[in-house]
């Protein structure tokens, strides 16, 4: 069955949010007199979520102390959420192609709604996403298939008519669980040692430009 809808993960796939996350984590480390982390280490952790990034900076903490720092980190991130974030270079052409072809597209992320809305309000895409499913939209999140099913429904297509593009194994598994085609964004926030053999995806995009070229073939 042909692909009639394109769904993106957000951080590390559609938008490069790593610099603002790194800045927020730096501020958190400074606040607690903790050593500042290497940017590349932060970048490869972004897609694992806020808790993992906080644990990276405070590896010896658990429980309430770790949660206190996570909340402080998220507070700093909220304040700097759009300082350096931008759509991955080369993806603009793909979004424009979706608009030109009248192909619906959307976002499925585990990012909380309040952060997603604050992040996206400053971006004017060539066509608006028909669906934005966040980590707290439903009672479950990726890799559960329900967020994927809802995204397809809101875009007016069957799940098997979608392709889901993401930069974390959880993204690929979510797409597979929903019966979608899947694509690994190998340009995203992957560990240095990650290779194609680690991903059971249908497609592999090593640059955002490749995503746009693929969309133009739909």
From TrEMBL:
GO MF term (any one): hydrolase activity
Keywords assigned by UniProt, alphabetized: Carbohydrate metabolism, Hydrolase, Magnesium, Metal-binding
Highest rank taxon of the organism: Bacteria
PANTHER family (alphabetical): PHOSPHOGLYCOLATE PHOSPHATASE
Name by which UniProt lists this protein: HAD-IA family hydrolase
